[in-house]
Here is the input.
Amino acid sequence: MTTPSATAPRAPRSAPARRPGRSPLQRRLRALRRAAPLTYVGLLLAVFVSVFPLWWMFVIATRTTDAASRFPPVLLPGDRFDDNVARLFGEASANFGTGLLNSFISAGTVAVSVVLFCSMAGFALAKLRFKGRDFFTVAVVLTMAVPVQVGIVPLLVLMEWLGWRGELQAVIVPFLVSGFGVFMMRQYVSQGVPDELLEAARIDGCSTFRTYWSVVLPALRPAMTVLGLLTFMTVWNEYVWAIAVLTPDNPTVQFSINQLQESAYARDFALMFTGATLATLPLLILFVLLGRQLVGRIMEGAIKA
Amino acid sequence: MRRLTRLRAAADTKGAPYLFIAPFFLLFGVFGLFPLLYTAWVSLHDWSLIGGNEGFAGLDNYARLLSDEKFWNALVNTLGIFAVAVVPQLMLALLLADTLNRAIRGRGLFRMALIIPYVTSIAAMAIVFSTLFGTEFGLVNQVLGTVGIEPVNWRGGRFSSWAAIAVMIDWRWVGYNTLIYLAAMQAVPRDLYEAAALDGASRMRQFFQITIPMLRPTILFTVIVSTIGQMQLFTEPAVFDTGGAMQGGTQGQFQTVMMLVFQEAFRYGDYGYGAAISWVLFWIIVALGAVNALLARTIKGAP
Here is the structure.
């Protein structure tokens, strides 16, 4: 099930006995809710606006720079993608290959870590009994409301103390946990893991960690996937922190894009759009694989909020 | 032997919960809470990239901030871009959600298509949009040219640059908010619409008198989330800028507060002043959040 609407109990319909004019009314209602052809035109327009910039980005990445300024716009891919990619990777100041690799490493590491640590904390806050549990739960919610990114200046000072400036761990370690992740996991554990299951594990002599590992984690798999995807996206997209703390010789992909744009090549649209395409592609591939779950999660989250 | 097992079990029940929450609170404390609070400390010092901490400065940085035109300019820009972006964003999302809430063929596909912008790389798309909003050859100006509108220098003007940045933001977030509203709309009891239809209320009236009031908490939630996010707006205007100086246009017409923090702290190396601006920004965000929460309570309290 991807949509909560399919599982959520619908409001009870009014009893037919009380509404004698039910069937004509129902017909009228359905007519009211039915979509007119114009509605589809509007929706298709919205889809077009959503997809056009992406498609155009790819088209320019397969052509020469002058294609970006042509009007009417060029809408079909050309045959220069290989050339552009080769040129991009040859561009020393952007260091694009390292950037892509570093982004994969940092986003992947953080995604695994967030999923693991947040599901642990979420499990403890949802199911284990201990002193201060309510306090810690409130604390987690508060951390979500605090805009920690505002602390960027001292965070950089901290990185200098640690000698991490310009090192890849500077874009990994500060993001290893997330309050949002703990909160989300807590919700899923309290709804998706029945107490009887945990009780059975305890009777079988499982330690708390064993219970977490072999009972809770398997039950959380769908939620973990979505949290992992959201985290990967966030870290992949991290821009301000990357350009503050990293150096051109050891960039992430966002830093590389920034380098491309700051260099004299800012007018080389084919090159920049090739970089933009390669920076977007991994996220789009993940979306194709996991998009349905993502849509489901966003909508579920809305109802809880 | 048995006693040992029991002891271990007791230690497990007592200690394990704390071990489970420890990684989150330790890491958050060191890399989230500490830098945030330390911002206040740094802001009270002469602190620079080259010299390090050069001594207590009292409220000097704040005095400078109050009379710094660039700060007030950045604050106006941040609030202005927020206002220009958020209103059309939420209205479009409500409209699209209401549309998708009808009997639509292929609703699942539409939902997927509308969420695509949300999963793209922000900086990459900002590059694409910056090109679309180019003055001479940008597609937007060329399209406007076909209806006789003179080319707009999008980066040049205050309002035009805000509008271009708002388009980038809204392109990304309309679909996301649409899904949130759609979920909330699907939770509105059908009875209400049936009763309204019985009374002869038009679709438009149903939308304004049932859907919108029932969605008020959700709308407020999305406004709070966008406020917190957009007060820290950085990537879109930074990429839209040329040269990477964080100047926000020739006259700073679209320099946001976060861009100013970046410029002062990392381009000019003045950590103390950068921290002072961040600390003020932090309290602005907290205040806006509190206002929103108060509004939420008032609305919930109303019949």
Summary: The longest strand of chain B covers residues 52-56. Chain B touches chain A through 107 residues (CB under 8 Å). Chain B has a mean pLDDT of 90. Strands of chain B lie at 45-48, 52-56.
